[in-house]
Every structure is written in C-alpha cells, then in structure tokens.
Design a protein that fits this description.
Keywords: Amino-acid biosynthesis, Dioxygenase, Iron, Metal-binding, Methionine biosynthesis, Nickel, Oxidoreductase
Helix content: 10-25%
Number of strands: 11
Radius of gyration: 15 Å
Subunit structure: Monomer.
Enzyme class: oxidoreductase
Structural class: alpha+beta
Shape: globular
Pathway: Amino-acid biosynthesis; L-methionine biosynthesis via salvage pathway; L-methionine from S-methyl-5-thio-alpha-D-ribose 1-phosphate: step 5/6
Largest sheet: 9 strands, antiparallel
Catalytic activity: 1,2-dihydroxy-5-(methylsulfanyl)pent-1-en-3-one + O2 = 3-(methylsulfanyl)propanoate + CO + formate + 2 H(+); 1,2-dihydroxy-5-(methylsulfanyl)pent-1-en-3-one + O2 = 4-methylsulfanyl-2-oxobutanoate + formate + 2 H(+)
Length: 181
C-alpha cells in the first residue's frame, strides 16, 4: 500500500501527517510540484525478466507516458535482495541529490521509498506496485530501497544522462527513518 508521511525537515521524530489514500497523497504532493498517479501495473513479471521483457509487458503505459511528457529514453531498474553490490547501490541513493530533469518512475514490482525535501518539509513517499511518481527537476531528494530490496521501476528521461544525481553534500537523510517494508 502506498503511503505518504510528511515531516518538518528538522523534526523527523514527529510526523505532521500520514496519508494512505492515493487521492490524499496526490493532493499533498501537488503543491510542491510532484506528480503522483496510480496506473494498472498488474502484469506479473517472471523471475528472470530483463529490461526488454518488462518494457514489453507495460508497452501501453510506457508509450502513453513518453508521448504525454516528451520522454525520449526509458529503462528498467530491477533489484532483488541477492543482487551483487546491493548494499553499495542502496547507500549511493541514500544521500540527498537532485537531477537536471524530472525523475519519473512507475513501480511495477515491489516497493521503494522516495524522500522529497521541499522547503522546510520532507515528504516520505512509499511507492508500491502501480504508483507513478514524477519528482520535479532540481528537487532535493533521496531514495531508499530497504535492506532487502525487491522492486522493478520503469524510469523515464528526456536525455540519456537524466538519471545522474547531483549530490548536495547535506546529511539530512541520516536523520530520517530508513525504509523498512
């Protein structure tokens, strides 16, 4: 189940609000420019499915998203607990960073958690299967896949290097609860 927890960025121990209904999550994220939608991600993916199989299974959604938002590049990030270097991969995205274009993802398997730092708030968004999230260009954030990650996300970009994170050097992520699905 998708979930949004809103915090003051200096009080991670005291949530300001918790939301689990998609309409409520969408309403809370819209003022900070984040697009949150639910899509039909009901295709079960075989264990060995790679990028091409995942994209083929969701071709109708991928094509519509690319056309509607001008994306030129799409790929799949699929991580399982036994993936090589999984701890290093988790650690890399646990640091606050931003991108030079929108970061748009559709979760088609499992879950992961975006932490969005907008103004003096942190929006912790647990994304599960069927969630589409688009974090605006330049928004500071971090991503936690959990200690035993299991997810597949279709990622959309305008430029092939759009996924590259520009790290802020801030340690804010260390103060917030880690994702534990």
């Amino acid at each position: 189940m998708s979930k949004l927890i809103v915090y003051n960025d200096h009080q991670p121990e005291a949530p300001l609000g918790v939301y689990t209904e998609p309409e409520d999550i969408r309403r809370e994220l819209k003022p900070v420019g984040v697009r949150f939608e639910r899509v039909n991600a009901s295709v079960d993916l075989p264990d060995g499915a790679g990028q091409e199989e995942v994209l083929a299974a969701y071709k109708h959604i991928v094509d519509a998203e690319m056309k509607a938002h001008g994306y030129n590049t799409v790929d799949v990030a699929r991580i399982k607990p036994d993936a090589p270097n999984v701890e290093a991969a988790r650690a890399k995205f646990l640091s606050e960073h931003a991108h030079t274009e929108d970061e748009s993802r559709i979760m088609v398997e499992g879950s992961g958690c975006f932490y969005l730092h907008a103004g003096d708030k942190v929006f912790q968004v647990e994304c599960t299967r069927g969630d589409l999230i688009s974090v605006p260009e330049g928004m500071k954030h971090w991503f936690d896949m959990g200690a035993a990650p299991r997810f597949a996300a279709i990622r959309f970009f305008i430029r092939p290097d759009g996924w590259v994170g520009h790290f802020t050097g801030e340690t804010i992520a260390e103060r917030f609860p880690k994702y534990a699905p």
